Records
---
Amino acid sequence: MEEKQITLQIDHHFVTVPEGTTILEAAQKIGIDIPTLCHIDLKGTCIKNNPASCRICVVEVEGRRNLAPACATRCTEGMIVRTSTLRVMNARKIVAELILSDHPNECLTCPKAGNCELQNLALRFNIREMPFNGGELSPRKREVTASIVRNMDKCIFCRRCESVCNEVQTVGALGAIRRGFNTTIAPAFDRMMVESECTYCGQCVAVCPVGALTERDHTNRLVEDLADPDKVVIVQTAPAVRAAIGEEFGLPAGTLVTGKMVAALRELGFDYVFDTDFAADLTIMEEGAEMLNRLTGFLDGDTSVRLPILTSCCPAWVNFFEHQFPDLLDIPSTARSPQQMFGSIAKTWWAERMGIPRDRLVVVSIMPCLAKKYECDRDEFKTDGNPDVDYSISTRELARLIKRANISFTLLPDMEFDRPLGESTGAGVIFGTTGGVMEAALRTVYEFYTGKTLKDVNFQAVRGLQGVRRATVDLGGFELKVGIAHGLGNARHLLEDIRHGRNEYHAIEIMACPGGCIGGGGQPLHHGNSAVLYARANALYREDAGKTLRKSHENPFIKTLYSEYLGKPLSDKAEHLLHTRYFNRSM
Amino acid sequence: MKILTIEDLKSVRSASARRLALREQSDTMAGGQCCGTATGTARMQILICGGTGCKASSSQLIGGKIKEILSEKGIDDRVDVITTGCFGFCEKGPVVKIIPDNTFYTQVTPEDAADIVNDHIISGKRVERLLYVDPKTGQSVSDSKHMDFYRKQMRVALRNCGFIDPENIEEYIARDGYAALAESLMHRSPEDVIEAVKRSGLRGRGGGGFPTGVKWGFARKSVSDVKYVVCNADEGDPGAFMDRSIMEGDPHSIVEAMAICGYSIGSSKGLVYIRAEYPLAIHRLRTAISQAREYGLLGENILGSGFSFDIEIRYGAGAFVCGEETALIHSMEGKRGEPTMKPPFPAESGYLGKPTNVNNVETFANIPVILTKGPEWFASIGTEKSKGTKVFALAGKINNVGLIEVPMGTTLREVIYEIGGGIKGGRKFKAVQTGGPSGGCLTEKHLDIPIDFDNLLAEGSMMGSGGMIVMDEDDCMVSVARFYLDFTVEESCGKCTPCRIGNKRLLETLNRITDGKGSEEDLKTLSTLGKVIKDTALCGLGQTSPNPVLSTLNHFYDEYLEHVRDRRCRAKQCKALLTYMIDPSLCIGCHLCAKNCPADAIIGDVRKPHVINYDKCIRCGMCMARCRFKAISVS
């Protein structure tokens, strides 16, 4: 059926749009940029918040008594819209002034300064005084967790975090409580986030337009460690960072800056610059072996084998199933995440080879993720209280630090990672996007299972941004069924199916953030533009395509690691250093 | 008994008609001779108001006491004691009415029970001291028909309130109850019923005034496996109790109307959303629903028509905003009670995403009678665009506080001065607030405007659900605006910026003015901010919340100006603006004021005139109240 088309007039321009289009979308189509604040619609993903509650986007619609929110008012035939009359501009300005009157004047010291959507509006509306200031400020809590800092007196009640936490992630840690002027966003009963089912995925931080939800900053700690002559400070960088950090320096989204990033890290004073991608290759060795074991057992008729096997790279995803699906703890792979595998190997094999005592070695990770900060802190990843990864800083924090250290990022030469822990294959690189872990695993599992060389390493069927994707891979006669889900809400659907015995998969990859790590809570802010995510994913696939080695098991230093130290995948040593267990944390 | 056919319904009706006949006759009689069993009256009925107000004044005890004495006297088989819903004349409650002579006793206490039985029921002599005395003539009036309070009223939605026993389905059936449902199911198509409702001109009584038939038509058109009929019983205006009284006095009319609505729009499931703070209404509604089920008037295959319908009660926690239909639906779904954008309207996507028709209690109460008496009859009442009658809850500085129902088009003057009996203490009328916190203040010059949806809106107020609060010269209009705004700020759900923060800032500005710290700039702020809130807020609550401020600013600008310019409150309500003064020529220096001053603000030697230290004075007025020599005044 053909979509019905509607013609309307916006600021004297005619525009024709399909039925159901909002005034905001129609205006965007003809280059009229109506300001918004609460609204976010990350097209192509499931992230959407449209409560029409901030009232910043109001416009005049002829024949209507009051102003209409452009974000939620659908176009009708013959509609006449005006987006910048005096009435509209005054109303918008007053609404913005009202928001500012319940917002602390801390812009100078706010971590969001310069990147704050409210600040931008104040500038855009030419707000030079705050006529409504001086009244009561709504009482709200502050909280610092391992990953997220909640500074709710800055909250403007756009409800983006609530939508993401409830509708997209289905975690339900954050929601509106109390009423009227005292309304705030908090876990139920105004508990602390640490007492909630929060997975620290950080998607709330990724969509917060102001400084109410931000990352826990470790840059000061890092500066001190780098300056300490007694410490050897090494760094690992996650795959998704290189595809996004350029944005913080004005480069277009999707610009690959791997070499400049390495150079910047050297400039900052890291003793060794390594790559989490190395550990991603290692993950594939372990997880792939586990997958093969389970598959072989299953095919041999062993009924005790649990399928599907679920990936376990994503710490928010681990938190999610520990909280919500404690009955399925035996399904996920026991392989640690690449971040933790890296830390574990760095502080054992590598440190021993280098003769660096554990207490002098500081392992820092650069992650697109906020849950990684929490993951470093988990007790099972510590030896005598000393964590395998000391702390994790996000892409955004790294960018801030580079600027603070007077480094002109865009002018830096391209440099190479250090060896051995900086060597990786294309398989490790694509870990940063949804579908990437599964694709990397397929490249290795295929060759191990069939004993044949894979002709085309590109598994197009598992790529893309669709919420849940399925693919069938022919492993020389055996049809391997794999599923991919990103966004915890999508993961929940798959897990509910498994819980109720309706599973159709042998293996499932899950990443908590929409888009995978490229859309992580620690990445440069996308401000609602999903093109940014597509560009980042493409950048990773480009880097993969440009590599000579594209299968994890071909990484020469992985081979060395096994021959010198671990023996083979799933050996006792490998189990001890590279695998973990899960806990029932249902509330 | 199960009513399986329309004939069954008719036989129940004729069986219980006798009980009602006595009441109906006496209602139309010209004012009866007082009767008593000793004077040969065969049967008598004593109606006792069982509304929340009268119950709170021990009306239940009166009933119990009367029954006790009747049985002592051995005449309990000839005299029925019936608990009814609200008579409306709450000012003079508890109310007891004697049938067949239609005697209307007011402010009855349990101690009066003996006299009522002995003098009236047995001997046929009215208990004079319990009769209502018309303040204008000084004469007592025995029959409510001849009281000013009732003379101008027309009871359509309240037709059974104070007349039938709300917990007895047979009394409702005897009053043509369930006839409209039976008639619709047996002889009319759903479209035909909707057409009749449209023709009647009935508009939503919850405040918005949307044509009910059109609303039903939308819900009918929506295609879905499940649809819902919702009764909005979340009456939240301060001082309003129209819906509560209807549910307490005539719950079956709601049950019947919801079933008719279900039949019309194609729904088999009804939900009543009622605030938990209405326990009596909940009890009566529950009783009515279970009786209707028992009689087969709710449930599967009603009257063999193939149509099934049942009703469930959902409780609200009393949030004002949940009277807004989308917020109400979210609350019923177990979500936060806050409104969402319309469209989609509930008729397309409502409760659990299904088409839902939401009507207010009073709207539903009109439905059965519209269908039995005909839409033309209903449309003949009222004004051109507002048909039928409207129930109002009269409150404030008015003599006859209570529940009234008048044809649309009645003037405010008639309501306030004739039905309401004028202003308390003979003081001067200042303003009347209609539409509760969403409405506005109307003044002297509006008194002759015929009340209807459009006229009130044109004057900057609104019909609302029917609260009517009368104010006299002792009321400060700035404080009145502040009172209502305080309510909206308290009741805002907090979702949209203008309502959450805007109303708060508006209230802070008003507080500044009543605290004597306001400026003329503040008056401008009130006006600009108020208009922007109206223009930008998300739901009806926010869009109407500045009305009390804007309408008082409009009609009483001088009073605002006095507050900010002269630091003066003419109604002497704004404490911070008051100055107490001791007249030295009258003060004898008794020191009583100084002794009672809680702030130690009065100084002076004994037997010499005292003075007030204004730095310390907290303007409590204690000194003036204590002074025996009228030496202290306030300005």
Note: Chain A is about 35% helix and 15% strand.
---
Amino acid sequence: MKAARFDYLRPASVVEAVAALAQDAGAKPVAGGQSLGPMLNLRLARPSTLVDVSKIADLRRVDERPDGVLYGAAITHAEFEDGTVPDPTPGFLARVAHGIAYRAVRNRGTVGGSLVHADPAADWPTTLTALGARVVLAGPSGARELALEDFILGAFSTALADGEIVTGVFIPRCSPQARFGYRKSCRKVGEFAEAMCAVLADPARGVHRLVVGATEGRHIVVTEAAAVIADPALLDARLTAAGLAAEPATLRLHQKVVRQAIEQLTTVPETESLPA
Amino acid sequence: MQETSHEAKGGRGVGASLRRKEDARLLAGRGRFIGDMRFAGQLEVAFLRAPLAHARIKAIHIPEHLKGRAFTHADMAGVKDILAKTGLPGFRVSAQPSLASGKVRFAGEPVVMVLADTRAEAEDLIEEIRVDYEELPANHDMLRAVEPGAALVHDDWPDNVFLISQTDRFFDEARLAGAPIKVTREVRTSRQCMSPLEGKGCIAVFERYLEQLTLWTSTQMPHIVRSGLAECLGLETRKIRVVAPDVGGGFGWKGLLQPEEVCCAWAALKLDRPVKWLEDRREHLIAAANCREHHYVMTAYADADGTLLGFEAVAHVDAGAYSVYPFSACLEGAQVVSNLPGPYNLPAYRCRTYSVCSNKPPIVPYRGVARTGVCTAMELMIDAVAREAGLDPYDVRLRNLVRPEQMPFTSITAKEFDMGDYPESLRRAREMIGHEAVRARQTQAEADGRKIGLGYATYCEQGAHGTSVYHGWGIPMVPGIESCGARLTPDGTLEVRLGVQSHGQSMETTMAQIACEVLGIDPGLVNVVHGDTAMTPYSTGTWGSRSAVMAGGAVASACERLGERLKKIGAHLLQAPEEAVSIRDAEIVGPNGSVSFKEVAKTWYLAPQNLPADIHSDGLDLVAGYKPTVDTGTFSYASHAALVAVEPETGEVEILDYVIVEDGGVLINPMVVDGQIYGGTAQGIGTALYEEMTYDEHGQPLASTLADYLLPGAGEMPNVRIDHMQTPSPNTRFGQKGIGEGGAIAPPAALGNAINDALKGMGVELSMSPMTPRRVRAAVAAAREGAVS
């Protein structure tokens, strides 16, 4: 199928983009288009105007600070994978990016787009929540910042207000000794996960966070996760409450994936390296 | 049959792993597919397709301003329905209209054709058309569709069955009742979509200068499409030319006449404009490219040592709403009956198969045709017998395979196995996979908690079925003598013209290799022309693993005949007697010198005054035919062995190792054969673990994008290891056998058996393909609950 007719704008600045969105209630921002593109072609999404934010300089900027890195929202998965942008973690971001969909998707898909799409089974929402990331938003009433777990409200649902766009994501710096476990169970390489868990153990900073994705709704976020890391069974009640225990086999799947993610904290080598 | 001699042909003849000639354009992205073609004044078609699986059309509302751009069945008066009849007794004929008439019978059936300058605009216009439907109960499950009271797909039929096929060979119930081992199982295989890289597509153009309708179409069988199209449009065949340009894979999906092709051809004539339709992936998935849905209930009877005493089965095949042209709705079902015994020596056999009519897209023969399903069913049964007998499945297989000293062997369903050593293929597979080491490893727990399993499957693949097999079917085509045109051009290069179509089979290379084998000509100087009814002799086309045998044989015949004529002229130029000259390396060689093809061609075309007086007046352009000495088909065969690791909690299956020992007879080009096996195996892995086109209770397809219909990708392919046996077929020109489909036949069986072997200790046995993580998890959970209760 071919997309229905739409207009296309490519604003040069965040201000212009926000103005364009404010002018037209049917307008929709687009960056890499890796989720929106197919929906356009299937005519499931029918925006009057596409506001292409992928070339806005502010959204392509990377700002390295002592406490972390602020990435423009239009940084692509491939740029994380290839290490062409700095990484405030000991290699976690490249590892996550390497497993997102397929290279063709990674070449175009953006971190901001992935967070805004808010698919619970996608890689960035789960892993960046585990890393304690914050999103930066811009809209008609100015800029604001939210913790990722407060931004993603549920499956495909975010705190984005009308006319607002994500301009950046800030990822805090980990200590060099930080360990990260990430496990997803997919029907095949590159598919959305049927179960996923990301866990960060950074005792030097006193940070232990665990996030379960591929949920029916909101992610399961454990911000003080040291106890759960020690005893994953403590999570069972939350898995059940999240509706992941409808069938015994489903609960066991999620339990297993959580345990495997936690096991990686001790089994994956400290220096992350991608397969050659 | 003759020995291969590629050494003598400079490593370019039969048996040489010559690099593919067609890759020069295809790998550079310079192929020309339907999607690349555009004619001046061209219109593009979008189809308004049925949103319901089964409904009466009450009214079609087309706005006034779309008149002349939107057409329904009523507008196509005079166009005949597609009728794919068979001569089999009891077969019920379905009339498939090119646009739905009166009723829609599956979701996705074309109802209105809309034309505009672009596809996007045509899709815009579709949104202005409204169709009123009265929904009817949909037959979404073949087992329910055959029950009394099911809604009728075709109102004038007494039930929803195209055909019942059956056989009963020496099946003595009383005697088998006493068999020490009796195992009954139910096995189901999913409905699939073929998913070639390139979907279907066509452009119909009325060429005034030829007074001919040219249909450019992505097809495997241009001559058959031509015949079918002529019948539907009521035109004489000479008024139609069908051309297949570059075609990006077929697998059976391009082996039929499609309603969309008829519509485009009709519209091109009606509007006198080129008309193009390009199938998109959504249409591919929901609108017709369906195949392979089988259900079996089987009982195997065996001795305590695993020797099969008898086998019985009742099978259902969901053939969908219509019988496809030319293969019909029962090819799959009827072949279940004849192919289920596989490579085994069965003393008693009884089988009944229902080709069921349902409210789903018609099924089309897909690489492996029926054999993928029967191999899965039979091979799961062999393992079930082994479990029951407490034997290793390898031993049970070995005990029952037809032995080499029995060859040639007539199977219980009268298949003529030509030659080979089936047990040896299994023995070699066992060695390669490291059977003993795996069994030892299985006694230890894996460090990561996964379970290791080993699975085998052996099959034989009938290919290049000929007249004696097909005339009895009574379908709209019967393969006979295969023809090839050979023409030496004025500069001494060669054109080989074939009615088959090469869409991934590498025939532009392999057929040139055969010309090289016969004439010694550099394959680089041979053009293989194919896929165009105007330029090639009639052929049923490329299907049924037939081209290497049939077209390959025809190329050899034509080159030999051409060689005789070349020798005559060459001998004259060499002033030697004809008996004293021979052909070597594109030269006529005599006792005192040689003359090149180039010289001979120059003489015929440019210096005819130098020709001998008694020269053959037909010249250096001829058509010759070929048929194997026994035309019931070649039987290649293979044993596959798979080693898997199964994670019982997540249901994930990793293929740790996969080996194939196959016998394709003499290999024309071993590298191309390996390519066929790899590609087929990838599809077989898709059948085994990923691909599934499901429907809900309303007959709605539940996978309309590749996010829902999962195909294996590079990441899912193991490093398949292949070993070749090369037992020449005694019946074919070079001893070659058809191997095109084999790779796709055995993987679901081998992997299914491996998964069941891995989970044996947990009391788990799966019997539904694909064996997805969800199914594995559910089976493990069910076994656990069973163990608890």
Note: The domain at 58-172 of chain A is CATH 3.30.465.10 (Uridine Diphospho-n-acetylenolpyruvylglucosamine Reductase; domain 3).
